[in-house]
């Protein structure tokens, strides 16, 4: 990690207050030996014991005695003058779609839990978090196979929103976002194909970042065609977000499309972003059905950005270029892409009669979309996929032109506010019927298709008392730029600290 002066703190009289420190403050306190790693692990495990039974965010939690013993080993290293990295002694839980050596990877699907094999090796980004000194305490909950933005599954159950326990926390990084929001983890990793590092943070009043594709390397599955899902960070502050991204990022020979160099210019985060040019897409001129409360909160946040010195332009449509003829092309392009990648990756489970019977309807929808095409007339062909890839490329080229006159593009993190737990997915939005389990999340497809850094930051709270966020899309590889905007926003709003989940103060 690039050197950075982290904020300093003093030892609290009540060590339970350790969990209120930012990750940067926690790192500084451990390095200065203000608190021990055992103190830190005890405080976080106590926080988990207090709140996790109410929200079900952390799963496969390891025994306390094992974790305290590992924390004591970290203290022994410090006593010998050996500090592994900025996360030395941090408790960390990995989203239950990625492997952690010695822990089960259920993906919310494989069961019974006791029969799921323990992973033999870490995922690449997990290796890096381990090398930075973290202690892996368990996993964070995710929807079955990561499908759908509502975290429930037959293995571990349902994750609840800390701002209203009767509402969803989103997904598929729902467990990670809730764990950070409730101070059960200092930071968390997540993954994002269709908004999973954006929608849950937006609904839990924290920050999330879908990095530029290739920023965080992965060697799982296909290495060349599947440029959809990425791993990235979730945190309560943009600085913490940047610190974890910097740890996860960097080229790896096992991931041929990974980006060389540091993930973030940490030094640049100390220079305030005092203005810039923003395109606010809002609801794309009415193309996207969006609940009025979402637009009310997001419009107010964009107005506040304008007051901070940003030049805001409202735009009603996506830029046209070549075969991408405008916003109306978005959903067909997305469905082709999603069916091929998600349907293809889940097809082995569909082809096996034993596991097909266990699949949720959303997984079946994706595989059968691949096999029967958008109109049901036959499988998606290589020619159709190539045409979609060209159209996606032209969408990207259109945004290259847009970014010649703008620094950032904004959209809401979701088209609805957090919905009831017993709703699998919203069937209607703003009076319009949704045609699939993810049509109400279409607002997140743009950032994915661009492969561009797309950051979720808290926008505020609506009359319902629930939070929603803004997506900040930057030019290709401009991860540092979107983080700088988030730093400016956080300095002005402090949303995660101003509006803590109510159950924290009960």
Automatic annotation (TrEMBL):
GO molecular-function terms, A-Z: amidase activity
NCBIfam families, A to Z: PRK07486.1
Domain Amidase: 40-483
PANTHER family: INDOLEACETAMIDE HYDROLASE, TRANSAMIDASE
The protein, known as: Amidase
Lineage of the species this protein comes from: Bacteria, Bacillati, Actinomycetota, Actinomycetes, Micrococcales
Domain of life, source organism: Bacteria
UniProt KW keywords: Hydrolase
Its EC number(s): 3.5.1.4
Organism the protein comes from: Intrasporangium chromatireducens Q5-1
InterPro entries: Amidase, Amidase_dom, AS_sf
ATP-binding recorded as keyword: no
């Amino acid at each position: 990690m690039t050197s950075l002066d982290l904020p300093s703190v003093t030892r609290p009289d009540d060590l339970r207050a350790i969990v209120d420190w930012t990750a940067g403050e926690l790192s500084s306190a451990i390095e200065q030996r203000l608190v021990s790693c055992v103190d830190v692990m005890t405080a976080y495990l106590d926080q988990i014991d207090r709140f996790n039974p109410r929200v079900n965010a952390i799963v496969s939690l390891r025994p306390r005695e094992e974790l305290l013993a590992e924390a004591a080993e970290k203290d022994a290293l410090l006593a010998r003058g050996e500090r592994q990295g900025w996360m030395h002694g941090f408790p960390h839980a990995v989203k239950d779609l990625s492997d952690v050596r010695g822990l089960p990877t259920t993906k919310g699907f494989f069961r019974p839990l006791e029969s799921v094999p323990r992973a033999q090796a870490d995922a690449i980004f997990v290796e890096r978090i381990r090398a930075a000194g973290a202690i892996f305490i368990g996993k964070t909950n995710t929807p079955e196979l990561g499908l759908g933005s509502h975290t429930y599954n037959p293995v571990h159950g349902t994750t609840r929103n800390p701002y209203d326990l009767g509402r969803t926390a989103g997904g598929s990084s729902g467990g990670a976002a809730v764990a950070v929001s409730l101070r059960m983890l200092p930071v968390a990793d997540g993954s994002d194909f269709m908004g999973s590092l954006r929608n849950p943070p937006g609904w839990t009043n924290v920050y999330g970042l879908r990095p530029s594709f290739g920023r965080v390397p992965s060697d799982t599955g296909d290495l060349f065609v599947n440029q959809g899902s990425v791993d990235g960070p979730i945190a309560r502050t943009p600085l913490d977000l940047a610190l974890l991204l910097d740890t996860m990022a960097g080229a790896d020979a096992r991931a041929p499309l990974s980006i060389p160099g540091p993930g973030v210019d940490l030094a640049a985060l100390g220079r305030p972003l005092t203005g810039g040019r923003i395109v606010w897409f809002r609801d794309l001129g009415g193309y996207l059905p969006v609940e009025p409360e979402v637009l009310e909160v997001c419009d107010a946040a964009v107005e506040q950005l304008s007051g901070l010195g940003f030049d805001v332009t409202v735009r009603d449509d996506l830029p046209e270029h070549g075969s991408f003829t405008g916003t109306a092309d978005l959903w067909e392009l997305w469905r082709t892409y999603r069916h091929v990648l998600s349907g293809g990756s889940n097809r082995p489970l569909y082809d096996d009669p034993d596991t097909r019977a266990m699949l949720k309807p959303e997984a079946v929808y994706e595989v059968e979309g691949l096999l029967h095409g958008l109109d049901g007339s036959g499988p998606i062909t290589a020619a159709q996929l190539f045409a979609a890839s060209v159209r996606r490329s032209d969408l990207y080229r259109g945004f290259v032109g847009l970014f010649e006159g703008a620094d950032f593009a904004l959209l809401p993190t979701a088209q609805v506010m957090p919905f009831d737990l017993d709703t699998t997915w919203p069937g209607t939005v703003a009076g319009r019927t949704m045609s699939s389990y993810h049509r109400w999340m279409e607002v997140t497809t743009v950032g994915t298709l661009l492969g561009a850094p797309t950051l979720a930051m808290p926008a505020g709270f609506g009359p319902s008392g629930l939070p929603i966020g803004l997506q900040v899309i930057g030019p290709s590889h401009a991860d540092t730029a979107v983080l700088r905007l988030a730093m400016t926003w956080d300095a002005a709003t402090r949303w995660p600290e101003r509006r803590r989940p109510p159950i924290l103060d009960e």
